[in-house]
Specification:
The complex is a heterodimer of chains A (255) and B (289). In chain A, 35% of the residues lie in helices and 27% in strands. In chain A, helix 7 links the parallel strand 7 and strand 8. The longest helix of chain A is centred in the middle third of the chain and has 14 residues. By secondary structure, chain A is α/β, with parallel strands linked by helices. Chain A has ten helices and ten strands. Chain A has a six-stranded mixed beta sheet, with helices on both faces. Chain A has a four-stranded antiparallel beta sheet with strand order 2-1-4-5, with helices on one face. In chain A, 44% of the residues are buried. Chain B has a single domain, classed as MetI-like (MetI-like fold), CATH 1.10.3720.10. In chain B, strands 1-2 form a two-stranded antiparallel ribbon. Classes of the chains: A alpha/beta (255), B mainly alpha (289). At the A-B interface, helix 2, strand 6, helix 3 and helix 6 of A face helix 7 and helix 8 of B.
Chain lengths: 255, 289
């Protein structure tokens, strides 16, 4: 482990409030390029709010107030004027698959089209590549014109991953992607993520502690709006933790 | 094991009773509709003919057809639709997709609801003042249609906004997360899924204007015209006003004529409504989520 790390995403003293309610307080962390950064923690820990702040989704939610600094590629996101360009570089996958009411093809082609890529040949290549990377191509290649929402739950979730990849993001954020997915599909997606790591940086929010252990290079433990611990994943699980609460959580004693 | 206790029996009795009462109320509700329709068909049906629909009134309106009024009503509703639909849909898109949730928006929403409650005679006087006199349209189809359009705007806005709100927010968020602007999201995801509901809802609401009398009386509908209107700046006859005239204003009117006019008027509304409902049912079958 001698290769130098590049900081992809820097978060310092991030606080997120909804009205009077504080969802996240004083979080400082760094996500390195080409790593899978796991975030574990019980529900209501502020994990999803954290992802929303990175993507500047606070602009669409008048109740959400973000303080602190987030840098993406070293640039302060609150000073980015082209937030659409920022969001295109960040792909998001939600807990429940959101199959837009479009065909499989159009679901994946939407982001390139929004970005102005129009030729059919161009789009064909992008769609196939993204569906392959999301391990869905073989199952849907014969019915690209079928509605995305007609696919099974697991397929839809892989479709949303393909859609997120079609933006050619530098950072991929997955928010508890396996909630509505069967174990076999989950494993297939996890294999995909290990492959994807070579090309993109991944933030993996999960409430499955073992999933973080399988995938994440480093992991942060969020609890009730604060970041309790950040460390190399194996350290968190081998007991080399600073905080007793982390040990209790990864051992399944609460949460 | 499944023997009914006293409490079970009592609950079942109450259940039967409430079903009977509620069902009876519903029956009572549709009774007037059935009576109105059957009386109209019985009394006005015999007069309906090709001649009645497509010729002008003669003999001081006591004979002949109703073509100028029929054409006038269709024109008035169409021009009103052309004016109110783009305006109402634009406002609905703004209110649903762009407007922040603050007191200004709430005030606008309240104003729209209140506008829907303004009596039609007040709209008529507003139309007279604004379109006939201020904009110098005179009493004309355009003035009457714009008055009708103003009157239907609130329901057009509310119906369109409801269709827009029925598109799940998750679709919008997925799109925003891809870096789409609000307009791209509306254009690509929200509108394609809302537009059918919007249009059918709007037609359903606007068809009711076919029967409005007060707003067009002062602004563009005439008692009797020997000629058909040549442009939207001419006056026109209209079925609703014609019905009022032939029922109350002309002595020696054959009894079946007003019933015939009423039957035609109600048929126009029913045809528009049922085609809109049919369209909605057809599209619901093709719904994508």
């Amino acid at each position: 482990m001698v290769k130098p790390v590049t900081v992809k995403l820097g978060v310092s003293d991030l606080t997120i409030r909804y009205g009077r309610h504080t969802a996240l307080e004083g979080v400082t962390l760094e996500v390195h390029e080409h790593e899978i950064f796991g975030i574990i923690g019980p529900s209501n820990a502020g994990k999803t709010s954290f992802l929303k702040a990175i993507n500047r989704m606070d602009l669409f939610d008048s109740a959400m107030h973000v303080q602190g600094q987030i840098t993406f590629n070293g640039i302060d996101t609150s000073k980015v004027r082209n937030i659409y360009g920022l969001r295109r570089r960040i792909g998001v996958v939600f807990p429940l698959p959101v199959g837009l009411p479009l065909s499989v093809y159009d679901n994946v082609a939407l982001a390139p089209r929004l970005a102005g890529r129009k030729t059919r040949a161009d789009l064909d290549i992008i769609v196939e590549r993204c569906l392959r990377r999301a391990a869905l191509w073989d199952e849907v290649k014969d019915r690209l014109d079928a509605l995305g929402s007609m696919l099974s739950g697991g397929q839809q979730q892989r479709l949303t991953i393909a859609r997120a990849l079609s933006q050619e993001p530098e950072l991929l954020m997955l928010d508890e992607f396996s909630i509505a997915v069967d174990p076999v599909t989950t494993m297939r997606i996890e294999d995909c993520l290990k492959e994807l790591k070579k090309e993109v940086t991944i933030i993996l929010v999960t409430n499955l502690v073992q999933q973080a252990r399988r995938l994440a290079d480093r992991t942060a433990f969020f609890l009730a709006g604060s970041c309790v611990e950040i460390g190399v994943t194996e350290d968190l699980f081998s007991g080399a933790v600073k905080d007793q609460r982390t040990r209790d959580y990864v051992d399944g004693r609460f949460g | 094991m499944f023997a009914a206790t006293r409490l079970n029996r009592r609950n079942q009795r109450i259940q039967k009773l409430s079903r009977l009462v509620l069902g009876g109320m519903t029956g009572l509700l549709i009774l007037p509709v059935i009576i109105i329709l059957s009386v109209l068909v019985y009394k006005g049906g015999p007069i309906i003919s090709f001649e009645f629909l497509f010729t002008s009134p003669t003999h001081g309106m006591t004979a002949g057809g109703i073509f100028p009024a029929l054409l006038g009503t269709i024109l008035l509703v169409l021009v009103a639709l052309l004016a109110s639909v783009p305006l109402g849909i634009a406002a609905a898109i703004y209110l649903s997709e762009y407007a922040p949730d603050n007191w200004t928006t709430r005030a606008i929403n309240l104003a729209i609801i209140n506008l829907a409650g303004v009596p039609s005679i007040v709209h008529a006087l507003f139309g007279l003042g604004a379109f006939v006199i201020f904009f110098k349209f005179g009493t004309s189809i355009i003035a009457a249609s714009l008055t009708l359009a103003i009157m239907t705007l609130p329901v057009v806005i509310v119906a369109s906004r409801e269709s827009l709100q029925a598109v799940p927010r998750a679709f919008r968020e997925a799109c925003w997360n891809m870096g789409a602007t609000r307009w791209q999201t509306i254009r690509r995801v929200v509108l394609p899924n809302a537009v059918t509901g919007m249009l059918t809802g709007v037609i359903l609401e606007v068809s009711r204007t076919a029967g409005e009398t007060a707003p067009i009386m002062f602004t563009g509908a005439a008692f009797f015209l020997p000629l058909l209107p040549q442009s939207v700046f001419d006056q026109t006859m209209a079925l609703s006003l014609h019905l009022f005239v032939v029922s109350t204003q002309v002595p020696g009117m054959p009894e079946q004529l007003p019933y015939g006019v009423a039957l035609v008027l109600i048929s126009i509304v029913l045809i528009m409504n049922s085609s809109s409902i049919a369209l909605r049912m057809y599209l619901r079958g093709k719904k994508k989520w």
